[in-house]
Structure formats: structure tokens, C-alpha cells
Amino acid sequence: MRELIGTCKSCDKEIYCLDGFFNGVITEEKENYCFECYEKLAKKDENPQS
Ligand SMILES: [Zn+2]
Questions:
Q1: C-beta of residue 34 within 8 angstroms of C-beta of residue 8
Q2: CA of 37 relative to ligand 1 center, distance in Å
Q3: Per residue of the chain (50 residues), what is the pLDDT tens digit?
Q4: Distance 1 CA to ligand 1 centre (A)
């Protein structure tokens, strides 16, 4: 079973819930991101642009 949750705020990739497994991330602000973009955001937070 596959349920469309939304699209990635960063790259517009569709994010699904697959048999209870969510292939993306929803932030506290209710923004959807795929894993790739969420990882990039997390890394950016750890290493601010110099
Ligand atoms: Zn993305």
C-alpha cells in the first residue's frame, strides 16, 4: 500500500508512506522533505557557510 503524503519542499520529489514506512521527513513546521534534501539541510546546519 502506498499513500502520497506530499512533495519535497526543496526538490518537488513525491513523498510516500509505503506500508507504514515514510520515505521522507516532516519538519516541526509541517514541511515535507525527501531524505536527500533533509540530509543536506542537516549538514548545512552543522557546517554554516563560511
Ligand atoms: Zn528533495
A1: yes
A2: 4
A3: 899 999 999 999 999 999 989 899 999 999 999 999 999 988 887 776 66
A4: 22
**3-class DSSP state of 48:** coil
* CA 39 centroid distance within chain: 8
Phi, psi of 46 (to 5 degrees): -70, -35
Question: How many residues are present in the chain?
Answer: 50
- Cα 38 to ligand 1 centroid, rounded to whole Å: 7
Distance from the alpha carbon of residue 31 to the mean position of ligand 1, in angstroms:
11
Q: How far, in Å, is the centroid of ligand 1 from the Cα of 50?
A: 24
CA 22: distance to chain centroid?
Answer: 10
pTM over 0.85: no
